[in-house]
Write a structure and sequence with these properties.
By secondary structure, the protein is α+β, with helices and mostly antiparallel strands. It has three domains: 1-147, Alpha-Beta Barrel (Serine Protease, Human Cytomegalovirus Protease, Chain A); 149-279, no CATH class; 295-404, no CATH class. It has eleven helices and 14 strands. It has helices at 40-51, 93-100, 151-157, 176-187, 189-194, 233-243, 254-270, 281-344, 349-361, 366-376, 390-404; strands spanning 8-9, 16-24, 26-30, 34-38, 61-63, 73-80, 84-91, 106-116, 123-134, 165-167, 196-199, 217-220, 222-225, 228-232. The strands form five sheets. Strands 1-2-7-6 form a four-stranded antiparallel β-sheet. A three-stranded mixed β-sheet has the order 5-9-8, with helices on one face. The protein has a three-stranded mixed β-sheet with strand order 10-14-13. A hairpin with a 3-residue loop joins β6 and β7. α6 (233-243) runs antiparallel to α7, α8 (281-344) runs antiparallel to α9 and α9 (349-361) packs parallel to α11. The chain is elongated. Residues 1-14, 148-160 and 380-385 have low confidence and may be disordered.
Length: 407
């Protein structure tokens, strides 16, 4: 589809202005340069350098890249948009006439990837140098300039935004009965067109040159505050979200939506925000459905994970219990062997059994008992012949209390 651009007559001069996508995003091939890639980063760099007055002169509009044929205008502004690098051309009367007579039907950009700033001497990367009117553009994505009866309609449907005050933080509420009337009364219908993302030009136009019925205006993002027009950041976001399909979308013809986006996207940049990628409403609905599917999938996966974790915790608890039982059995066997060894060495069985009971709860005291039993052991021949004396039992109790801390 061919690109339609608008020529806007200026009230105070004989020059004419138009916006054109000078460098569409994409990759193409040229026998002189090989593969040429136009990326978002490249056009962002060009627009930023332009805002910093690099190059130090207004990039000229010439014929077929030949400045010797004279100048037919200048590049007045550059904007990095979702489709490419847009240039605002300020044409002379001769330049406008060349387009009207279709002497030239395309534009061709001049830029460099390694520009050295004339003032600082620093390398600043990609810089836009100028633009030529041509019939043979190198970039296959550049679309034909068409000037026809619908130029005025396009111009009015998407009106450039003036340099109004910016409000970054305040809440956004637009009352059509109050706010729209205040704009019309104080600044006229043109200001309302500038304050809205879209104007339906199928409505009959009044003396102002704009439809004089509020139903023609959609997607407001600015209103009167303290007797001046103010652009609200949250209003711009709300308008963009509605354009892209949020909250039921907005009734704007499909073929106009990209132009409305092209008006709103640069305002994002004024608030130092990155505009969302352009897409149509049905794409928004498709993305929403995909997001819902993904949410359901993640919820199911989370539930499975929780169930698996619960099962693992239960298995871990059972294994821990089994391990503790086996460890206790092993300790009991070791202590039984230990106790039998001390009884064999002559320590009274009743003493050894009390020590064994203590060690079943705290095996770290085993070395203490070993030291004490060295003093309690009796000759092998006496083992089992006599019962333990009261003094021996008392001593064993004292040993147990000293180690165990209780009876």
């Amino acid at each position: 589809m061919n690109q339609i651009v608008s020529i806007v007559e200026l009230e105070e001069s004989e020059t004419k202005e138009l916006w054109v996508n000078a460098l569409p995003l994409g990759t193409f091939y040229d026998p002189r340069y090989g593969e040429v890639k136009i990326t978002k980063e490249i056009i962002r760099q060009m627009a930023e350098n332009f805002k910093n007055n690099i190059p130090h002169y207004p990039p000229p509009v010439n014929i077929a890249h030949n400045d010797e044929l004279g100048g037919y205008g200048i590049v007045k502004d550059l904007e990095a948009r979702s489709e490419g690098l847009y240039a605002l051309l300020e044409l002379t009367e001769e330049g406008k006439k060349l387009l009207e007579e279709q002497k030239f039907r395309f534009v061709s950009s001049e830029f460099t990837s390694e520009y050295q700033d004339k003032k600082s001497g620093k390398k600043v990367g990609y810089v836009f140098l100028g633009l030529a009117l041509t019939n043979r553009p190198a970039h296959p994505g550049v679309q034909e300039i068409q000037l026809g009866d619908d130029v005025t309609m396009v111009k009015l449907a998407v009106v450039n935004v003036p340099a109004w005050k910016l409000e970054p933080n305040a809440e956004w509420v637009f009352d059509w009965a109050r706010d729209a009337d205040e704009i019309i009364q104080k600044f006229g219908w043109q200001a309302l067109a500038q304050a809205c993302g879209y104007v339906d030009m199928s409505y009959e136009k009044g003396e102002s040159g704009y439809p004089e019925v509020k139903a023609a205006y959609k997607l407001p993002f600015a209103k009167v505050t303290d007797n001046q027009m103010v652009i609200y950041r949250r209003g711009v976001i709300a308008a963009m979200q509605a354009l892209l399909g949020a909250r039921g979308g907005v009734d704007v013809p499909r073929e106009e939506k990209e132009r409305v986006y092209a008006k709103l996207a640069p305002i994002y940049q004024q608030f130092d925000m990155e505009p969302p990628e352009f897409h149509y409403e049905e794409q928004q609905e498709a993305m929403r459905m995909e997001e819902e599917k993904e949410i359901v999938r993640l919820q199911e996966e989370l539930q499975r994970t929780l169930s698996e974790n619960q099962k693992l915790l239960q298995e871990n608890a059972e294994l821990k219990k089994k391990y503790e039982e086996l460890a206790k059995e092993k300790l009991l066997m070791e202590l039984s062997d230990w106790a039998a060894e001390w009884v064999r060495k002559g320590v009274k069985p009743v003493v050894v059994e009390k020590a064994k009971a203590v060690l079943l709860e705290d095996v770290s005291k085993k070395q203490v008992f070993d030291s004490m039993f060295m003093e309690l052991q009796q000759p092998m021949g006496q083992m089992g012949e006599t019962a333990a004396t009261p003094s021996e039992i008392t001593k064993a109790d004292q040993v147990a209390k000293a180690v165990w801390g209780g009876a």
